[in-house]
């Protein structure tokens, strides 16, 4: 494809703009008239016609005129169109993959995004607060959080939106109070680990101990279990996963997630509201059902996590 040379010429900017616009379309959609497109981009009709011709000649799009009904899209090469928009890689950020659920999510998303011709990578970062902040600073194209965290920031009028949700128990399993088997969980000087960078864990912890006087100890989420085992703290709210259930030194008491409609257990993908191109890209290339199947296979030990 020699289209890169075309981008260096006079029509380059409008070709890139139209590539992004056509990427958001579907086969069968009616396109705007040349006149309305030229007004939208404040350029001449001739420039628009030339840009559309370039896209057609490179077989990125095909358009069929249907007389007074207008012109309709009959072919779209999404991979080639996205390559013209200036995006040369996609990077998402998600929690540290310490559980099979997270490894399954990472594997499933990475696998389904292979349908793109653009390189895709994950970064890993603890704390929904940290991931949101990095997203808003444009360090990443999208972030994975719980539904609970996403709704919290949307309610606080953060400029984000949810583009994909995966369903209950796709982010974590049910939560519980984790403690050493010999620990009296009703004692007055109970030391509780809390990670202030995690909206979910903070809210669940404060709600559970609402009517008790306990000592809150600030720790990173991935340090909580070791801190319990090392007797640095007495307990912490944590997801009841396979590692907890098989740990002979620990015990747990399930807590109710129903007060949050189990939103704390559901994985979602969030983006900045103004990032329409990434929204279209995720909607077109991400197969949520495939992601969930890969997650199931990782949890069941049927496949090795790859991300």
TrEMBL record:
Domain Uncharacterised protein YhfZ C-terminal intervals: 77-307
Cross-referenced InterPro entries: HTH_41, WH-like_DNA-bd_sf, WH_DNA-bd_sf, YhfZ_C
Start and end residues of each YhfZ helix-turn-helix domain: 26-73
Domain of life where this protein originates: Bacteria
Protein name per UniProt: Helix-turn-helix domain-containing protein
Species of provenance: Clostridium gasigenes
């Amino acid at each position: 494809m020699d289209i890169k040379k075309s981008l260096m010429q006079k029509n380059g900017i409008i070709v890139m703009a139209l590539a992004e616009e056509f990427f958001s379309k579907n086969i069968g959609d009616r396109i705007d008239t040349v006149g309305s497109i030229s007004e939208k981009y404040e350029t001449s009709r001739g420039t628009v016609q030339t840009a559309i011709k370039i896209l057609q000649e490179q077989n990125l799009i095909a358009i069929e005129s249907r007389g007074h009904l207008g012109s309709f899209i009959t072919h779209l090469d999404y991979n080639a169109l996205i390559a013209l928009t200036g995006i040369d890689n996609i990077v998402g950020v998600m929690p540290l993959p310490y559980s099979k659920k997270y490894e399954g999510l990472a594997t499933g998303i990475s696998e389904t995004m292979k349908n793109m011709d653009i390189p895709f990578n994950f970064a890993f970062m603890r704390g929904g607060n940290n991931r949101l902040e990095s997203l808003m600073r444009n360090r990443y194209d999208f972030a994975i959080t719980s539904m609970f965290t996403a709704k919290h920031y949307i309610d606080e009028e953060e400029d984000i939106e949810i583009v994909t949700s995966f369903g209950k128990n796709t982010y974590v399993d049910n939560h519980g109070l984790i403690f050493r088997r010999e620990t009296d969980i009703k004692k007055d000087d109970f030391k509780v680990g809390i990670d202030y960078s995690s909206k979910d864990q903070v809210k669940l912890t404060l709600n559970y101990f609402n009517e008790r006087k306990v000592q809150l100890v600030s720790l990173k989420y991935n340090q909580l279990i070791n801190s319990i085992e090392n007797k640095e703290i007495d307990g912490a709210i944590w997801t009841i996963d396979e590692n907890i259930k098989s740990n002979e030194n620990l015990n747990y008491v399930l807590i109710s997630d129903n007060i949050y409609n189990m939103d704390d257990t559901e994985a979602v993908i969030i983006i900045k509201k103004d990032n329409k191109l990434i929204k279209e890209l995720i909607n077109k290339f991400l197969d949520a059902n495939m992601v969930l199947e890969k997650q199931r296979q990782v949890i069941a030990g049927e496949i090795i996590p790859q991300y």
